[in-house]
Write a structure and sequence with these properties.
Number of strands: 10
Strand content: 15-25%
Strand order of the largest sheet: 4-5-7-6
Largest sheet: 4 strands, mixed
Oligomer: single chain
CATH class of the largest domain: Alpha Beta
Radius of gyration: 20 Å
CATH superfamily of the largest domain: Metalloproteases ("zincins"), catalytic domain
InterPro entries: UTP_pyrophosphatase-like, YgjP-like_metallopeptidase
Helix content: 25-40%
Structural class: alpha/beta
Shape: elongated
Distance between the termini: 39 Å
Pfam family, one: YgjP-like
Number of domains: 2
Order of helices and strands: EEEHHHEEEEHEEEHHH
CATH architecture of the largest domain: 2-Layer Sandwich
Protein name: M48 family metallopeptidase
Length: 227
């Protein structure tokens, strides 16, 4: 069976790695001087693993929710792993407030996705980025920069330049899941590939690793849903 993939080369990268994105695309990250033949060799070696990833039903099925539904009182939105009720309020000036529920001004209903997204992004910067520093200290590693981004296909990433990026949608997940994604990306600063050593590093830093992976497998699509 034919397997298509994209090669992304970088002068900063030292090792060949393969990732399967959530849109089913296969990406090979390669040092600039690695030949196409060496890339093909790695893809052939990982072919069985790649097909298993590509056939993962839950992770890659289309989202079930219909787009553009009306926002009404009583709907719920996720935050740190829990669903909180949405209440529309007569407040023409302020933005979204959170007080055990989401208080959204009626004037923002038409822009609900944008304003709620911005609220999530702000909370992600506020809560996730400090934990990156804390977990990095625990692992004894240093990174260049950590940012919150809008990646559609990855929860987190670690670049060859030791920059870390985290999907803002993670703020909807429980904190132990957020910590897992953080530690996962930080561990790549020690071990680039998903080797047994890599997983031992993650598990040693985060005892809830398996529980977090299970949670993402079962609930990852909920993080991607709009309100």
């Amino acid at each position: 069976m034919e397997l298509s993939y994209e090669i992304r080369r970088s002068t900063k990268r030292k090792k060949l790695t393969i990732t399967v994105e959530r849109d089913r695309s296969v990406v090979v990250h390669a040092p600039a001087n690695v030949s196409d033949g060496a890339v093909r060799q790695l893809v052939d070696k990982k072919r069985l693993w790649l097909f298993e990833k590509l056939q993962h039903e839950q992770k890659y099925q289309p989202l079930p929710h219909p787009p553009g539904k009306e926002l009404v009182n009583g709907e719920a939105a996720l935050y740190l792993g829990r669903a909180y009720r949405i209440e529309l309020v007569d407040d023409s000036d302020g933005g979204i407030r959170f007080a055990g529920k989401f208080l959204i001004p009626r004037s923002h209903v038409r822009q609900r996705r944008q304003v709620l997204r911005q609220w999530y992004v702000e909370r992600a910067r506020e809560k996730i980025l400090p934990r990156v520093c804390s977990q990095a200290h625990g692992l004894g590693v240093a990174f260049e920069q950590a940012t919150i981004n809008d990646s559609c296909y990855r929860w987190g990433s670690c670049t060859p330049g030791n920059n870390l990026h985290f999907n803002w949608r993670l703020i909807k997940a429980p904190m132990f899941v957020i910590d897992y994604v953080i530690v996962h990306e930080l561990a790549h600063l020690i071990e680039a590939n998903h080797t047994p050593r890599f997983w031992n590093i993650v598990r040693a830093q985060l005892t809830a690793m398996d529980r977090a992976r299970d949670w993402l497998r079962d609930n990852g699509q909920r993080l991607e849903e709009d309100v």
